[in-house]
Write a structure and sequence with these properties.
With 167 residues, the protein is mainly alpha-helical. The chain folds into two domains: 62 residues; 79 residues, DNA Binding (I), subunit A, CATH 1.10.30. The protein is built from eight helices and five strands; from the N terminus they run αααααααβββββα. Strand 1 and strand 2 form a beta hairpin. Helix 2 crosses helix 5. It is elongated. It starts with a helix and ends with a helix.
């Protein structure tokens, strides 16, 4: 019974429209919802599990129709917290501002390139393969360092592992 008719039996907006359009008194509404809940197909019981959940959601739909409940398309006036990218590690830039993340990453890699090879800022190891290198803070964030162009460097993986937070 996966038809449009079956779906309409659990569509609370249709049930709410019926209640509101007929301007049902509370006793009529209770009799109507009891009849729906006890329907032999049991669709509402299967879908909502508990009568309480069904009735709470139905009340919300009725409130929407009567203007007592905010609609999803209403504008909510909230102001998000301003995020200063310098206070985030570079990998989080990817989530917050992918364009700036890509630009900063390219800048650090390009700055560390000589003669077509990337060079480790610590040991001088060079390779044309980006995957052998990691961008790291010169002055660690744990000690107040920021994620800025002048505080980022390119290190080979082994130098980055050795460095840790000792800087």
């Amino acid at each position: 019974m996966h038809t449009a008719k079956a779906r309409s039996k659990v569509d609370l907006s249709l049930i709410a429209k019926e209640i509101v359009s007929k301007d049902m008194r509370r006793s009529e509404q209770i009799a109507y919802t009891d009849a729906l809940w006890n329907d032999e197909s049991g669709m509402l019981r299967v879908y909502y599990g508990l009568k309480h959940f069904f009735l709470r959601q139905l009340e919300i739909e009725i409130d929407k129709l009567t203007g007592q409940f905010p609609h999803a398309n209403e504008t909510i006036n909230t102001i998000g917290e301003e995020i200063n990218l310098e206070d985030l590690p570079l990998y989080k830039w990817k989530q917050e501002n992918p364009e700036k993340y890509n630009k900063m990453k390219a800048l650090i890699f390009n700055r560390a390139m000589r003669n077509g090879k990337y060079i480790c800022a610590r040991c001088g190891k060079s390779s044309p393969h980006k995957g052998l290198f990691q961008i790291d803070h010169i002055f660690p964030m744990s000690k107040g360092g920021k994620t800025t162009e002048d505080n980022l460097q390119l290190l080979c993986r082994s130098c980055n592992m050795k460095k840790g937070d000792k800087a």
